[in-house]
């Protein structure tokens, strides 16, 4: 059987004496859109950073197409990273560069294309995320939060990734812009073979985009025998889950601490 595209085996992450991830086992198959949910601080962003090699686990293995990231040369790790697009929380645009230069940045760095080809790529992806042509000359400070996210997405897609990692893509956006970004995540996947991991605490986003949901619980509040993954299944299955911590998360404010 084909190896999963991404796999975490018995992964622990601690910062100092603080355990953040504990014994995480997870497989993500090619083409899936997996949403990772859980209250603030439970380690969702840490998990995303592990997948792209921005963080190393304290124990366990992270595999990409069966290859352990911890065993790879810098060169091989670099070639895997280039296949992974990341839409950071807050979009993380370069403030001193125009929208055009932000989208072109990675393409210039990683591909030997002439300027005409780069211009085509920038305009193609600007159109894909629904931004008008004249936004190319704008500076990030002139953009709304939703526009920034769209530029961040265009910048990631311009590198033609096989995997897209989204960190809170709709947090802080109004409901209309949330739906625009949710639709873009769906369209992005419909246009190309893409595996996506979407970290969010917005159930609206989960319901719209996820094939599968994974819910984490803070490691610091688990008993020794409990799994940190409270739920791994379909969005529909989430609604039927009996664990009160899951119910509270999906019914209430995701950021409110659940008392156990
Ligand atoms: N580099 C780091 N050094 C020390 N602690 C860190 C580091 N990165 C994350 N943490 C801590 O790990 C915990 C989990 O952080 P993480 O950002 O993954 O949470 P999250 O589930 O994504 O939360 P949120 O929904 O608020 O973004 C937090 O307590 C955070 O302070």
UniProtKB/TrEMBL annotation:
Where is the signal peptide, in residue numbers?
A: none
Locate the coiled-coil region(s) and give their ranges. none
Name of protein: ATP-binding cassette domain-containing protein
Task: Describe the location of the ABC transporter domain by residue ranges.
Answer: 6-243
User: Cross-referenced PANTHER family, in alphabetical order?
Assistant: INTERMEMBRANE PHOSPHOLIPID TRANSPORT SYSTEM ATP-BINDING PROTEIN MLAF, PROTEIN TRIGALACTOSYLDIACYLGLYCEROL 3, CHLOROPLASTIC
Q: Which GO terms describe its molecular function?
A: ATP binding; ATP hydrolysis activity
> Carries keyword Cytoplasm?
no
Instruction: Please tell me the species this chain comes from.
Output: Telmatocola sphagniphila
Under the heading Pfam families, the entry gives: ABC_tran
Report keywords, A-Z: ATP-binding, Nucleotide-binding, Transport
């Amino acid at each position: 059987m084909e190896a999963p595209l991404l796999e975490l085996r018995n992964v622990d992450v601690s910062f100092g004496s603080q355990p953040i991830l504990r014994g995480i086992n997870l497989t993500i198959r090619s083409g899936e859109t997996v949403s990772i949910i859980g209250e603030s601080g439970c380690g969702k962003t840490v998990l995303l950073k592990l997948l792209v090699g921005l963080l190393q686990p304290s124990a366990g293995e992270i595999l990409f197409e069966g290859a352990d990231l911890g065993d790879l040369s810098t060169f091989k790790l670099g070639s895997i990273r280039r296949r992974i697009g990341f839409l950071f929380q807050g979009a993380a645009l370069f403030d001193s560069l125009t929208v055009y230069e932000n989208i072109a940045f990675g393409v210039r760095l990683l591909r030997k294309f002439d300027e005409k080809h780069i211009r085509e790529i920038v305009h193609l992806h600007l159109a894909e995320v629904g931004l008008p042509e004249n936004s190319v000359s704008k500076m990030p400070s002139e953009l709304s939060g939703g526009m920034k996210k769209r530029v961040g997405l265009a910048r990631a897609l311009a590198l033609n990734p096989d995997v897209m990692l989204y960190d809170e893509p709709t947090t802080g956006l109004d409901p209309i812009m949330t739906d625009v970004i949710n639709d873009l995540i769906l369209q992005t996947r419909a246009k190309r073979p893409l595996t996506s991991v979407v970290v969010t605490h917005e159930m609206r986003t989960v319901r719209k985009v996820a094939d599968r949901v994974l819910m984490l619980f803070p490691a610091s509040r688990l008993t020794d025998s409990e799994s940190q993954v409270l739920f791994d299944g379909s969005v529909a299955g989430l609604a039927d889950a009996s664990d009160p911590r899951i119910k509270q998360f999906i019914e209430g404010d995701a950021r409110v601490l659940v008392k156990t």
